[in-house]
């Protein structure tokens, strides 16, 4: 009867942790497996997409599987709100409603679930967005790990804003709203008991107010992207590829907090590949760079905003991101391949 | 540093499988744990809720954790589409967009994932709704069971339709669009290898075309509810409770296919408690009953529609559902307590 169940494939063709890491393996999974399955549908899957016939409304969805559930600076509940609010914000949209679907492992302490949900509710309230619908499924012990949360958000685009990963132009300034590497190293340090937890807290926070502060820029605001899985390197590579430009980054300007650098050194991680949950890259027209920096710095969550580089013509290398080091050397900033930090969000 | 993590509670206060079963334990979890956490928000969590300020649009979300992934009559991919389309339909809405979030266990065969996604894509196309955005997370072996899918849907209400679980009036006719018990017994039989798979296939299917066929009834269409987790008994009890009425069901009219009755007998299940994924209960004004039955029967998915009972005044027992048996006896049809069939959807 079960005619649709396919013939098993060789061992090698299995899902790897890296398929969920936001790097090259994720892109392959999307292109080879996911998009063809939805081939008759409405174009590519994006982080946040316009509702058909209602272009001012955008929709985004994200599963949260972070381990441990609680970490310095946040927890899976607040993260589920911030991640979704930020996916909407990166399309220039203010959040208007969230849904929350829980998959809970049998035997989870109710008190832990309550704490996660209280944090989620508080984060939603602070972001000014209601949770309007939800679902709860329980699976047996060992069929899930504690609790997974899938949050879906609907947002309304701010008038005049149409940021897109394909919107970068040669000459544009590249800004970053705050330091990188805090979320990933905070979660990893807590999970592995590495002892950095006293010095590093996740940057998990909503970014929609920063985007609202940038809205007077109109179409001079070219690209917004929050460097989550895959880190700053993945975000810049995706923008360079989708805009068919080159991006030139000045290494010395990229803010990496000292404890993050120390943790990455010990763990063998590149801070450029580590997930963030509370900063964003902003590409703006050259004449808007100073106004954009001032707008970002006018809010606490943007107080560390800096200019980190600029967009160059592709010159035969569309999609290339190059880092200029302090001594003047140049190296290519590659797209991360696979999984550095499983279950970081 | 991890100050929000609560003090552990006694062993008894843990999440049970029954908390996800759609019965009394689910209602308790909602009332005691979930709703208070979102207390500052926008009212109760419902299966599908209006978007704030955009009342013609409704949103619903559902996690799908069914095991096995493939079963007679469907699979987790098609089920994820049908379940979400039907939640929208039960609010009188046509689906306009879906999002799909995957949580995948490391090591899952890519061929299996592809088959699930192809089925999901096909079901969406057949329902006429695009998948516009998505997300994929991968967790380590043993941290999830193969693949979980959370589908969120946005729908637009059909003009003039405002069905609600609180909308039943004394005198209303209670209709059922098709036979009950097929989905739950098909999944359970496949999972446990009970051998009923040759005779029973899930009724998983979209119901939005049936709802469209009922739309000429306008406000004489009082309630729509698909009896999924908790079965027909849970659906009728929820409606009776929310409408503060009594419901009187004629046992002999409730269509239970013979193989379903045989399977339930052997398994010790009550067909009234078994989940369905392709039928719905419809409450209509008395003078609309014949028109509603004719509209339902005009489509293949409603060809087995029947009248199964009527709404009575509460008479001091609001929320009571009573079943009249063939010999004229009357028994209360209780809300199922907890879990009969874990991971049925």
From TrEMBL, chains A, B:
The record's section on Pfam families has: AIRS, AIRS_C
Q: Which SUPFAM superfamilies match?
A: PurM C-terminal domain-like (SSF56042), PurM N-terminal domain-like (SSF55326)
Give residue ranges for domain PurM-like N-terminal.
Answer: 54-156
| Limits of the PurM-like C-terminal domain | 170-315
Q: Which GO terms describe its biological process?
A: protein maturation
Q: Which family is annotated?
A: Belongs to the HypE family.
- Return the PANTHER family for the record: CARBAMOYL DEHYDRATASE HYPE, HYDROGENASE ISOENZYMES FORMATION PROTEIN HYPE
NCBIfam families xref list? hypE
Protein's name in the database: Hydrogenase expression/formation protein HypE
Annotated gene: hypE
């Amino acid at each position: 009867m079960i005619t649709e169940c396919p013939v098993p494939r060789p061992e090698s063709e299995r899902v790897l942790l890296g398929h969920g890491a936001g790097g090259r393996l994720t892109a392959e999974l999307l292109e080879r497996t996911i998009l063809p399955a939805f081939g008759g549908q409405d174009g590519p899957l994006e982080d946040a997409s316009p509702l058909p016939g209602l272009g001012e409304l955008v929709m985004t969805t994200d599963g949260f599987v972070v381990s441990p559930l609680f970490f310095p600076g946040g927890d899976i509940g607040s993260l589920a709100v911030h991640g979704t609010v930020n996916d909407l914000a990166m399309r220039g949209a203010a959040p208007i409603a969230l849904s929350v679907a829980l998959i809970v492992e049998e035997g989870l302490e109710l008190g832990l679930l309550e704490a996660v949900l209280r944090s989620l509710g508080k984060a939603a309230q602070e972001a000014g967005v209601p949770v309007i619908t939800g679902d709860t499924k329980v699976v047996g012990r060992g069929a899930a790990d504690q609790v997974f949360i899938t949050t879906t958000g609907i947002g309304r685009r701010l008038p005049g804003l149409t940021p897109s990963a394909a919107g970068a132009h040669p000459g544009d300034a590249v800004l970053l709203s705050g330091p990188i590497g805090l979320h990933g190293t905070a979660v990893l340090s807590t999970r592995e008991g590495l002892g950095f937890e006293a010095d590093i807290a996740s940057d998990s926070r909503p970014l929609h107010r920063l985007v609202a502060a940038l809205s007077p820029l109109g179409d001079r605001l070219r690209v917004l992207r929050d460097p989550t899985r895959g880190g700053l390197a993945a975000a810049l590579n995706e923008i360079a590829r989708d805009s068919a430009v080159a991006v030139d980054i000045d290494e010395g300007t990229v803010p990496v907090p000292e404890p993050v650098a120390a943790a990455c050194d010990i763990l063998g991680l590149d801070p450029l590949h580590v997930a963030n949950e509370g900063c964003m890259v902003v590409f703006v027209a050259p004449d808007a760079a100073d106004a954009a920096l001032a707008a970002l710095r006018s809010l606490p969550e943007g107080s560390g905003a800096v200019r980190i580089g600029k967009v160059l013509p592709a010159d035969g290398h569309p999609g290339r991101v190059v880092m200029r080091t302090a001594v003047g050397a140049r190296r290519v900033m590659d797209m991360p391949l696979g999984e550095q930090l499983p279950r970081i969000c």
